[in-house]
Amino acid sequence: MRVAVLGAGAGGAAAVVELTQAGHEVQLWNRSATTLEAFRRLGGVEHEGVFGAGLARPLLITADLRAAIDGCAAIVIALPTISHAVVAIALAQAGARADVPVVLNPGHTGGAFEFETTFRKQRADVPPVAEFSTLTYVARKSQPQRVNISGRARQVRVAALPGSERAVEAAIALFPCAKPVADVLFSGLCNVNMVLHPPGAILGAAWIEATAGNYTFYAEGMTPGVARVMRALDDERRAVALACGHRLPNLIEEMQAIGTVEKNITDSTDFAAAISSGVANSRIKAPGSLQHRYYLEDFGHGLLPFRAIAKIAGVAVPAADNLFKLAEILTGKNYRDGGRGAAAMGITGLDLKGLLARVRRT
């Protein structure tokens, strides 16, 4: 299959590696030609880790979006979720075909809602879009031309809004770890980053600023206090899901299914021990500053849409509310401005019955 991969960060680079190794023809796009230059010089993406070491060679490396999507049977958006609305507009303006499915890897919480709502403001003929609950890799760019892929998901959730089922089929064809679930509320509420990152980002902020993130976020930063806040937030996530008709595993069980918590962990209530022992995340450093994506992405595009869904579901989420408010004070940012709120997702004014009707075929 010829596939456009949009995004040349760690996630996009890792997707190029997996998809080319699987025999797909990949056309890699990034808005910044500067980011692509290191790949261009080599003729591909240098990689090491779970896919071995080598050079993955895309068919095309370009900053021209029209060229990147030309002739492709699917489009994979492997960008931080803060970029999804901008890319939806760009795709609409670049002439993305309505019969070519889009896969948000990851979509996180509310990804399909936001993409469809944003695209529709440009054009009525929205392509089918599927969202993944989390990125299919643990990956970091160790050098501009090289990605280190320390983990590949064993399982991620995938779902689409009614009418976009073909995008789920495309997602499964491209990424065998994708497991279909009932609807985008299920997949969106399985966004582990929404629970995994905010407690440590808030409670570790002083140490992040003092050391420029010179400690391991998921190991040294996973203290009992952080874990207690994380567990409270996770309880709220599962309560909202239950109000929407879904009984979800807890964070540790979900991470075991993904592969970022080891299979031999038997106590899924001990968040600190389970997360700190995960091999795939063990060497990942904390954010270097309050400008890191754990702040930029996981509040305005994680907790914000979660709180909007919780409000519609009628479930109180004080841990989420307080973490969100502290993040705005801490960073001085208004995450609601440009964030993935109810309006961005196109769900303003819906009650729970209306929300469920929006995500399920009747």
Outline the structure in words.
The protein has 362 residues and is of the alpha/beta class. It has two domains: 187 residues, 3-Layer(aba) Sandwich (Rossmann fold), CATH 3.40.50.720; 165 residues, N-(1-d-carboxylethyl)-l-norvaline Dehydrogenase, domain 2 (Orthogonal Bundle), CATH 1.10.1040.10. Helix content is 44%, strand content 15%. It contains 18 helices and twelve strands. The strands form two sheets. Strands 5-2-1-6-7-8-11-12 form an eight-stranded mixed β-sheet, with helices on both faces. Helix 4 runs parallel beside helix 5 and helix 15 runs antiparallel to helix 16. The protein starts with a strand and ends with a helix.
Radius of gyration: 19 Å
Based on the coordinates given, report the CATH architecture of the largest domain.
3-Layer(aba) Sandwich
Arrangement of strands in the largest sheet: 5-2-1-6-7-8-11-12
The fourth-level CATH homologous superfamily of the largest domain is NAD(P)-binding Rossmann-like Domain
Along the chain, the helix and strand elements come as: EHEHEEEHEHEHEEEEHEHHHHHHHHHHHH
Average pLDDT, rounded to a whole number, is: 97
By secondary-structure content and strand pairing, the structural class works out as alpha/beta
| Biggest beta sheet attributes | 8 strands, mixed
Low-confidence stretches: none
Count of folded domains: 2
The rounded distance between the terminal residues' Cα atoms is 33 Å
Principal-axes geometry comes out as globular
CATH secondary-structure class of the largest domain: Alpha Beta
Percent helix: 40-55%
